[in-house]
Amino acid sequence: MNLLASEWIKARSIRATWIVAVSAVVVTVTVSLLGVSGLMPDWQTSLPVDFDPTGISFKGILVGQILLATLGSQTITNEYATGQIVTSLSITPRRTTLLASKLAITLLIATVTAVIAVACSFIATQAALGAAGLPQATLADPETVRAIACAVAYLVLTAVLGLGFGIITRSSSGTLAIIVTVALLFPALAPGLPGPLGHLAGTYWPTTAGQSSYAVVAASPFPPLFGLAIMAVFTLWTTLAARLVLKTRDA
Fold first, then answer.
1. Rounded distance, CA 127 to CA 129, Å?
2. Domain of 130?
């Protein structure tokens, strides 16, 4: 408990933690609204067959995930930058215990941030759809509730990825570069790969599969929770790799 309290004090005392958290909420909501408003004139003329009033509420997650990953990475990279990691490792020689405490704090902050971001995005975009006379999602639909929960879980997983990559790279900028590549660059290029390789990469890539979990209208060949499970397994592997690096390189 003392270690958790210490990690919480570290996280909350850094101004950047709250700046990034608030920015993640604002950016996620803003991009979601911009994505809806940009296509609204076309929808008012003719709704696409795959129109998904729930899924479109979370377009901002494509950008918000980068900030959530940054939020996770700062839990450890700030200590590498200031040299405080030496003190942390001296006080807590058991690397797994240190990682677990940082993971717990990351989960706490990321979950609160993700819940607020997803809730605000959903409320704002549904209000915009309603004002335009377009179909809205309803919380009475279990699939809508499932999509909201998956959107929150996806963002939390990206924060944990940020923590893992932060340990591996010991750098916020290094983590940012990896996350942008993993979450944005590769998914954009994967479909262009030749033959079945392009299909597999474009469908089963962890972030792509994870993003399909918060759609109501089927966007992938597998169930939504399976897509989130792919993202969760990838996050677990990254965390285990970070644990190995922390125990060996930073011994």
1. 5
2. 2-248
Total number of domains in the chain: 1
3-state secondary structure of 177: helix
- DSSP one-letter string for 204-224: HSHHHHHHGGG-SS--SSS-H
Q: Which residues contact 141 (CB under 8 A, 6 or more apart)?
A: 54, 216
Q: How many CA atoms lie within 13 A of 14 on its CB side?
A: 19
Rounded CA gap, 67 and 29, in Å? 13
pLDDT in tens, 154-170: 999 999 999 999 999 99
Backbone angles phi, psi at 155, to 5 degrees: -65, -40
pTM passes above 0.90: yes
Determine the 3-state secondary structure of 148 from DSSP. helix
Both structure tokens of 121: 């995005």
When pLDDT is cut at 50, 70 and 90, the band that residue 152 belongs to is: very high
